[in-house]
Each structure stands twice: as C-alpha cells, then as structure tokens.
Amino acid sequence: MLMNKPSIYLIVLIVIVCCCDRVNADENKSEKPNIIFLLADDLGWTGLSCFGSDLYETPNLDRLAETGMKFTNAYAACTVCSPSRASIMTGMYPARIRLTDFIAGQNRPYAKLRIPNWTTGLNHSYMTIAEALHDDGYQTAHVGKWHLHHAGRDTNEYGPTKHGFDVEIAKPEGTRGYRLKGRVDPSGTSRGQYLTDYLTDQALMFIDDAKESPFFLYFAYHVPHTPIDGRDDLVAKYRKKVSDDAVHKNPEYAAMVSSMDSSVGRLLKRLEQHGIANNTLVIFTSDNGGLTQRYGKNDGFTDNFPLRRGKGSAYEGGVRVPTIMRWPGVTSPGTQCHTPISTIDYYPTLLEVTQSNGSQIHNQNIDGLSLVPLLRNPATSLNRSLFWHYPHYHAGGDSPYGAIRSGPWRLIEFFEDDALELYRLDQDPGEQNNMVETNPATAKELLQKLRSWRKRVAAQMPTPNPDHDPKRAQQVTKRRK
Asked: Was domain 33-383 assigned CATH 3.40.720.10?
C-alpha cells in the first residue's frame, strides 16, 4: 500500500526527532562521567609498587598509573584519618570546619597543652560532594569506612545516607578485624570471609545496577589500617618474598595491600565488561601516611622511607600519599604530575568534571582548587600554598603542630615550645636538614603566611594546661565530653 506524501513526511520527521533525542541523550551521558573514588586507609607514600615499594605487589594499581596519571606530591589534609575524609567530603580544610582529629580522638589530661573543644563529626551544615552529585542526578554509594559519625551521638543521623549517599555498604556486624562472622575458612583461601573481598563484591553489584546512568562510587577501604591481619593465602605468599635488606618486610601488611590491589583490579575489569571504562574517572589516594611508630617505638608495620616518620607525625611521612587518577580522553597515559595537591581539591575537581554547581547553592568557603587543569596538562602550576593544622597529640606523632608547604619549602611550627623547622623538599624529601638558621628570611615569611591562614580560617589553638604534669604527660584517658 502506498502512503501519501504527508504520511511519509510525518514518519521522516519522527525518525529525525528520535535520532536527535538519542544523540542528545548520548551527549548528555558523555558529559556526565562516572566517578570511582578509592581511598586507602593508612597507606604511605611508598606503599605501592609503582611508588617504590620493594615488597608490596600492586599490578592493578600499577596498570592504573600506566594508563593514567601519577601525582608525586599529593597530600592528605591531615596526618590522621577523619579530618582528611571530611576534607574530601567538603573541599574545606579541617581547621575551617574544626574537625581536626580522628574520631573520637585522644585525651592527655596532663600534657603540656590542652587541646581545643573540636568538632567530633561531620555536621549537616555542609553540602558534601555526594549531596552535590546526588542533586545533579548521580546515583551515589558509600562502601567501607566512613569514620565521620559524631562521637556519642546517634550514628544513624550522621552516616553516609544522611550526607548524600543513596546506598551505604559497611562492615557487617560481628566482623572481627577483617574476618567476617560465620564465614570462617580454616584454609584461609576463601575470599568471602575477608572484609576487603566482601566489600568489593558489594561494590561490583552497585556498578552492575548503576551502569546505565552516571554514578559516584566512594570506596573507602579499611586496609591497611590496624589490626595488621592479611588474608592467610596472601600472607603465605609474601613470607616467601621477604628480604632482610628490604625497606618493607611485613608479610601481613603486604597481604593487606595486595588484597586492596586485587579489589581495584576487579572494579576496573567490571568497568571494561560494561563498556563504561572510557567514561569513568578513577581516583586512588590515601587518608594519611603509613603508621610507623607508636609512643616513640617503631611498630614494624611499614616504612615510608625516604620520607620521615608516618601517621600522626608532623613530617612528610604523615601526610604525603600515593595518588593516581585516570580519566580517559583527558589524562595522558603514563604521565606524572609533580604539582602539590591536597585532599581538599577533590570536591571542586569533581564539581568541574561533572559540571555540577552544588557548592554554589550553599555558598561554602571551598579551600581546594580544581585539578582538571593538571589532568589536562600535568605541568600546570596552581600557584598556592598548602596548610596543615593539628592541635592534638597522637600516639604516632609529636606535639601539636601547624605546617605550610610553599613551592619546594615546608615549614613546621610546634605549638608546645614554638620551635620551627624548615626543609627544602626538592633537595631533602626526608626532612633531615633543618634550614631555619641558614634561611631565616624564608622561615619568617612562611611563618607569617601560616599564622595569617590560621586567622583566616579561625583555626582553634591548644592552650596551656594548668594540670600539666611532665611525669604523666603521655598518659591517655577517655576524651572529655
């Protein structure tokens, strides 16, 4: 049967409209890349093979670096976990939001300084990156460790789903360390009984369900935080590889890092299977440096060499972390960026990547800068200083301190005695040569910048402790409420 001309024109018009709608839908989808944010717990700067470990094998993260970009001067916003996690969620310095220690922190009632009355949890007054992306149509999931609940309050009111995440997948109740209750396997080879593997299974199911629309997966690993407890089969593997003259010698710790790397590999493979790898930005980093000592004694867990010290300390080993980003079509494979960046930068970066404007709605004072220019050109300079503020005591660290990195220089101010230390990191990454006396002008300039910044963000300072007792200064009790 022949159709008349109006009917033919109508069909052609419908086809054209449908094609245009399909093209527009595809363009909109391509403009909204998926985001996978992978956060290690207590992983030091040299904690990956591609960052220099002589024991830990991380083939999947190495491949991510080979196909993406390594950041050699990447920092956590704090030397302990909760403040760094808060900086990722808000794009703000921990000092600004007064969440400056791990939750719930320590109390040393007889130390020289009394710590300020800081905020022990992430308040609802801030729009998190998850809320911003959720409002822009993203499906959002938090997997793993949150550690931003308010101490002593109802955790249901301050968990991930109250801060913009559609889904929360946490450690199952009854888990002992990294072993899931009721899934004991005497041989130690079952993946299902090990926490990292279980959480990865759940993350993969989220990707399967969310693959057709833009999603934000925030996977906060528990490893390699204490207790140091690797999967048995992996521990056996690394025991055969330990060398006496190596920097890294702990097979349990190596096994924990290996389980995390296997998890990353499974996630990346699933992206490829669904055909969405080229439209997914993957970020890998850590919340602070590796834990190397407690109460002045080496713990034997790991080593951040050539950096000095580790988690809880004022030095580079406490805050410089391994970081990799891959955004196909934007990052050039196998590139390195040496520009200093911080966890405060991920919030504005993800807003630009996703073309969202969530923070502008709430008019937050974002401290970070978008890293998109660096992803496009790793030689780009951000022309800013980075700051740290830790008015607390920590088992793995020193006295309360503040610090600034400006160009190659890093200045540390210790609050107990106002002592200053100045290091030129491009020549002395291990912070062995204090240059305060030989470069007094630089030290003075950086100290002024540091103190001006503290005033700008209304940073809380410790105060003299009237109960100070040198003999009991290291004594730790429950935190005062």
From this structure: yes
